[in-house]
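fwd from M.: "can u put these together and see what the complex looks like"

so here's what she sent:
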Amino acid sequence: MTDDDVRTHVLPHQHKLGGPIRALHELMRVYGYIHTEHLPTVADVFNISVAEVRGIVSFYEDFKTHPPARTTIRICQAEACQAVGSRRLTNELETAYHTKLGIRGNDVELEAVYCLGLCASGPAVQVNDRLIARASVEKLQATP
Amino acid sequence: MTTVYVPLDTVAVALDANVVADQLSQAGATVIRNGSHGLAWLEPLIEVEHSDERVAYGPMTPTTVTGLIADGVLERPLTDHPLCQGPIVNHDFLQSQHRLVFDRIGHDSPLQIPDLADVLKALAMPPDTLIQMIETSGLRGRGGAGFPAHIKWRTVRDTEAPRKYLVCNADEGDSGTFADRMLLEGDPFRLIEGMVIAGHATGSNHGVVYLRSEYPVAETLFQRALEIARECNLIGQNVLGSDFDFDLELFVGAGAYICGEETSLLESLEGRRGQIRIKPPVPAISGLLSMPTVVHNVISFAAVPAIVRLGGETYRDLGVAPSSGTMSFQLAGNVKRGGLIEVPFGITLREIVEGYGQGTLSGRPFKTVQIGGPLGAYLSQQDLDARLTYEAMAELGAGIGHGGLVVFDDTVDLAEQARYAFEFCELESCGKCTPCRIGSVRGKETMDQIINGRARAQEFNMINDLCEVMDRTSLCQMGGMTPIPVRSAMERFPEDFVQETSA
């Protein structure tokens, strides 16, 4: 991935509304996370400073600056899921995967998310791209 | 071949609807993926068509659907089956609703081009007449603030500018809300129709839908709907043969709750950090790219076609003026029957929680319902007879917000919930103003002391002071409304907030 490769992914968004955010979404999709060495290219294409790009990346939850774990489990921590046991589910998953919410890992990473729109069928969990409603540890472990 | 409807709504998909759909196809059925009727506890809710009648079964799982197929569900209605719900339109949860925004949802594929009579009617009307009609209807913003729609429309129309914009706020981040998602997934054309009409009325030729990234199903569906809308000239040049041009695009956010605040959303749309802007100027005068901009929630735009169809007076006479028309309530949390309830304003909380919801899912006693998302009040049993209007809720120190209601049973600790309100504010604050950025952190720390039983009068005073400062001096409603859940919890459930007993 040379600078030219990165530029190829960024350039199509140069004149679009909200271009930097669209471009960063694209880099996430292609490279899995935002590499520090890509930031100057993004800055150059949009004629903004590297600090500004860094500011955008740090502001939005979706833009990660480290490689994703093999399995990322996002557990909804918001009220509607709290009402049906998301705090307990979080503890159970922490025990089951020997980790803590928000701790980075290579294998399984548990991440907080605030609302997946499954509020009438919680607790809601997302395993990589797959959404699971009425989630439980058993249901997650049965999921391929 | 028998036709079976299987929802593609996120709730259904998160409960294995895609597997169920594949099983039905393999068994020889013609599967149509529809939107959800909004009876979330029955999802995935499939409907099998036999000689023009659609018989519903739910909730389905890959196991139960195998059984249904073996029992012959594709050959004849299995009305005695325990999961048979009969024709879903006759279900009491739906029969008592008055759907204007969600009237088409669930009946067909969301990508079926609908009857565009409302748009044609509106395009033939002079813009001023349309704005007058919206004023008569009493339509107020459904995103949370309840601001009269016609004022935004008229301001944008009357402000001289080289370009004008419509921005649809689909950054539906409030926990307990999913109406925007359901509409985008189940009837995306309803939003497009509403935006085309609003564009014509306000003289705006450009629209943008700002969708949160947590809604991937909605993103795919709406993108496809935009392509179809372009093909059938609902958007583009000379919309449906008129002299009005309107282009519409989708923008996907990147995981920031604050971007649901309109000025923060505009900053984000311009490609920056979603930090709020100081108002004035309001977006209707200087919004997207400093141009006059109508910023509306999905449901506000989606209510417009019905107003054009029915007329302003008929719409206004639903509900309890000045809370006019219908509201899409979303019942969630610890409740037996959760889902989407579109009814005129004025229904009581009890009718929703006990009538539609039929009490808690756990079967334990009801304790509280939080209304209006994370910045909404926690109400108690004593409040259940209150009517859901902007005015009646304001009297209780509450707000309707985007219409989300989250039910909790008696295991909830309101001190934990008050702590969470501060914590959420800390997590999602854009950081621009001090009361929100620092007040939230101090509030959380102080609540920790209360929860650990180490708080004295000074900690309680600290919470009250923080709430007052955040309420009065925050730049936007994120910090400004965080005191609402905190104060309502402390006032209504003092037993959960205990002072240290002096040793």
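replying to her w this: The first strand of chain B starts at residue 3 and ends at 7.
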